[in-house]
Amino acid sequence: MNVRTPIVLCLSGHDPSGGAGIHADIESVGAQGAHALSIITALTVQDSRNVLQVQAVPAEFLDEQIRLLEQDCDIASVKIGLLGDTSQIEVIGAMLRRLRVPVVLDPVLRAGGGTELADDALRAALLGQLLPQLSLITPNAAEARRLVPQAATLPECAAALLAHGCPNVLITGGDEAGASVINTWFVADAAAQRYEWPRLPETFHGAGCTLASAITARLALGDSMHLAIERGQRWTQTTLARAIAVGRGRRIPLRH
Ligand code: PLP
User: Fold this and answer.
1) Euclidean distance between the first and final Cα of the chain, in Å?
2) Confidence of residue 81 (pLDDT cuts 50, 70, 90)
3) DSSP state of 204
4) How much is the pTM?
């Protein structure tokens, strides 16, 4: 086994602006001292402001990529971001049943610029087929509400996600109002843990991907969930504090 540099399998969309998606994953995983295998679920047309188009990679092609790497590499953890369509969920679900390693899903449902990135069928497949196989899901507040529209509060959203079989739910608050950013980690049978971070003056593109992939790498490196969530947030905050403007839209985290 590769003890020094653990391998993280990342399945994410490609964002040509370099702020979110697979760019964020590769850079974040590398910065933690792990190595990213990169499988691209979808190509996008986007800039630092918004996503204009998404083109899913055929699920059979993902399956070929996954199976080849599975045979070649000792995968220590898996990070899942943007999903192209429901047939990809079947392929990824089957992979998770074979691999049995920590899995983090950052549910990418809507771009920061407003474009919808998941329809009802995709959300239903994600809840029914993927959630029970995850170690952690990291929705922002808006994504948590969209995953569980019947819930009245964020703790109720988290309770429903836990009830679907995902043992850890981290709801991030970067997209909420307020002087600080409140992230809350929910588990089934214990009190929720609240983290408070100073709200930085800018808005960011790719913050969620950065956090989720840093946590996934920390898990591959052997951190407990508690430590991975703490270290992932602290590191992400430093990347946001140093964020750069690559275009005329939101800033992107500086991850190197
Ligand atoms: N494009 C891809 C490929 C993504 O993975 C994501 C988010 O995770 C986005 C766009 C949207 O990022 P943001 O909401 O930070 O703009």
Assistant:
1) 27
2) very high
3) B
4) 0.97
